[in-house]
Request: fold
Amino acid sequence: NAGVTQTPKFQVLKTGQSMTLQCAQDMNHEYMSWYRQDPGMGLRLIHYSVGAGITDQGEVPNGYNVSRSTTEDFPLRLLSAAPSQTSVYFCASRTGGGNEKLFFGSGTQLSVL
Amino acid sequence: ELKVEQNPLFLSMQEGKNYTIYCNYSTTSDRLYWYRQDPGKSLESLFVLLSNGAVKQEGRLMASLDTKARLSTLHITAAVHDLSATYFCAVIYAGNNRKLIWGLGTSLAVNP
Reply:
């Protein structure tokens, strides 16, 4: 049972580079989301999706794009990386309806130099 | 807007001692979660509390919810080193697509 799979686990970028963080889940969850975790700031929601073709912004969406073409995949794109985007990124998913228990991926440690 | 406050943010405990972590939230909510995060790892769901007076226990951890006081507690009994981790509470925000609002986490270190 793979659950939520995130790749890569570690990434170093130079300022201005672009990249995509991959997230896939095999639990047929409708809801998927991306968080960033920074020391002293807790978890902050970047973007989320309630189903294929539907995405919306969270608390800190600037500098990030998402799309949801399938139920399984929810990639996060950094178009022009900035040092402020250095963080640990988590993808999470859950079923729809009233069950909001989130299942998290293993995280991506991103450093932007 | 819903705010979630945890205290303490840092806790150093001796093995065998009892302690409590508190999670306060600012507006009405119908669901509260506790998660655990080991250093450098992902988050794992511990408890889901659905109603006033709900109590859940697993091993040395017991969580409770008082919706009238807007307070949840995570009680640790006879702490052991394996419980060293960061514990987060998260509360459903009833408006705005039922987003989870997170506390900042309590970093717990259990020392011999």
About this structure: Chain B touches chain A at residues 31, 33, 41-45, 48, 88, 90, 92, 97-100, 102-105 (CB under 8 Å). The CA atoms of residues 11 and 25 of chain B lie 20 Å apart. The longest strand of chain B covers residues 85-92.
